[in-house]
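User: Structure with iron/sulfur cluster, tokens only please.
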Amino acid sequence: MSVAIKRALLRAVAVPFPSGGGRCCTAAVAQAESVQLSKEASLYVHWPYCLRRCSYCNFNKYIPKADNGSVMADCLQRETETLLRLSQVSRITSVFFGGGTPSLAHPSTIARVLETISRHASLPEGAEVTIEVNPTPVGRSRLKEFHQAGVNRFSIGVQSLRDEDLKLLGRDHDSQHALQTLAEARRLCPGRVSVDVMFGRPRQTLGSWERELSELLSVCDDHVSLYQLTVERGTGLFKQVELGQLTLPAEEVMAAMYHSARTLLLRHDFHQYEVSNFARGNAVSRHNLNYWKGRQYIGVGPGAHGRFAPLGEGGAVREARVQTLEPDFWIQEVQHRGHATRKRIPLATPLGLLEEVLAMGLRLTEGITHQHWQVFSPEAELYKVFGTFPDVENLLLNGHLILDDRGLRCSWDGLALLDSMLPTLLLALESYMDR
Ligand SMILES: C[S@@+](CC[C@H](N)C(=O)[O-])C[C@H]1O[C@@H](n2cnc3c(N)ncnc32)[C@H](O)[C@@H]1O
Ligand SMILES: C[S@@+](CC[C@H](N)C(=O)[O-])C[C@H]1O[C@@H](n2cnc3c(N)ncnc32)[C@H](O)[C@@H]1O
Ligand code: SF4
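Assistant:
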């Protein structure tokens, strides 16, 4: 699996599932699920522009040189159409407009992409359609039109409720803007609004983080995504930290922040369903769940990635696909050949696919059920692959990992240590497949 794709995927989101139940009929159910899943996919649309660069961000984003909204809309429609045809998917189960700052896109662009999807596949009534919104006055003013265009879930990039921190991170909004945007989004889509918030920020203390999160929980809706601030190479923040101009909280403070946030969220009835994601009731993100469940998804727009099996090209081998990153080149390629897929990596070997299923699935609190594993690995069951590998046995013995009738999953403590456990698990998988 490419490191870039793995990291991009690890950034994304997910949900809980009913537990696996008995294992006697899992093979038949898994096979039926596998057939059904090949006809379905989620669809991600990347809007690559931002008004400015936040100091910590290394996502695929550009400051627009000119207003090319209309050509972008044409090309997003064209690429959607081409990739839908290539994938031969008949049903789109969720759509996610991410970025960059998709709330800078004109609402008619969102409407046009959704119409294109409906023309070439079925997009069931009520399917989750999310747009990420930067909580600026412009973002807020467009919420109603996005909703009218077909959006039924908002993901608001609040990041922090502390104005001095927002400034430090280079955000283009303040906490009042965020609160107003959140209130308007909740009015339009009650129960279907998510907030992104980052902890582990420069100069942040455990006490100030706990107070800030409590404030946020008193105003937010039913979904929270909680990210530990990562210092990414090549960003302004990286330079500031390297030059000693800014310091981040120590590792053990970060760990305590994550722990106290999980506890606080639970006290407010948010159940954790994934490393970074919490929901009240069933407000989980269906789209991101599909990523973590290893299901097919189509990526449209500059730098978008996808996972699907293009039919008619030598059988149905699933591929990891990445679209051209830079928007001007992406536009040229879409105009020239209908799509701008830059990289295609066939996931032809069972190992490649299973590595993804493992790395993604263990992010869910539910983990990987036997039935889910069997969809991708009909031959080698979880017990056989992981149950006898000595280093995995240690993880099971110390209680960070659980392997039982439900499947393989992290314990509460283990979830915080997933990154350090994954190499051992991947090694166990590799050595089993080498046999
Ligand atoms: C790529 S942004 C796009 C959404 C929107 N432009 C925004 O900034 O609100 C998606 C989310 O990724 C998270 N993110 C981006 N860079 C990050 C970093 N270096 N560390 C942790 N989280 C990050 C932020 O919480 C952000 O809301
Ligand atoms: C970090 S997640 C945040 C989602 C949000 N917390 C929620 O629950 O809706 C979203 C970001 O991941 C990236 N992303 C998600 N799916 C992607 C895909 N298929 N291709 C490229 N980037 C993707 C985008 O940069 C997007 O802004
Ligand atoms: S607005 Fe979002 S995508 Fe744009 S630079 Fe900031 S964090 Fe990155």
